[in-house]
Protein: D-alanyl-D-alanine dipeptidase
Organism: Aphanothece sacrum FPU1
Amino acid sequence: MKPYQQIPISECGEPLVSIPLEKFAVMSPHPYEKLGANYQGKSPYYLRKRVVNALLQAQTFLQQNYPGTNILIFDAYRPVAVQQFMVDYTFASVVKQQGLTPEQLSEAEKQAIWQQVYQIWAVPSENPATPPPHSTGAAVDITLIDETGAIIDMGGQIDEMSERSQPNYYAQSIDVIKQNYHQKRELLKQIMINAGFSRHPGEWWHFSLGDQMWAWETKQAIAYYGRKF
Ligand SMILES: C[C@@H](N)C(=O)N[C@H](C)C(=O)O
Ligand SMILES: [Zn+2]
């Protein structure tokens, strides 16, 4: 159990709504649908109403200060079944990268890979007290695009399982390009924090508002969004 999962949830009942996608950039096709994730009629582009409003606020702030720059939404709502699909997919990918099959792995080797997977993915828990963040409709994975529509280089890919995913990975670098990665990550963080979000301490692209991780990071006693569906 992660420390943030100790935070009690007092579900406020606010609905999930569709993100107005015309106001943002999106990946097409959606990255997890492309891998075969089944959303069973729901959309990865749902969020809680207040979370959508806050995301729009972040977008307005960004465009007022950096005209032409835009938020790219990589992922938002994720049913627990999709969380399960993605952790299984990631486990299988790591095994494959090692040129192995699961049957060739010892229990200890499997555990080591699961540990790696759960470093960046939340456990697909069905327990209402410990929902995966994206299953609450409060979490969103984003990056930025520039005025030409190109994805701004943040010095790492979303969902990358490496040290580079740490938000401050480039903070101390003396290399100008790497300093620029850090500045871009800081810009992303700043527009989101201004709008009320908090950032995942280990992932530069993950932000949430109102869920357990947000409550933990912002020192609130309770979270107000639990699992949806
Ligand atoms: C891996 C990334 N897409 C992500 O969303 N990670 C968080 C921790 C999650 O699975 O909720
Ligand atoms: Zn995320």
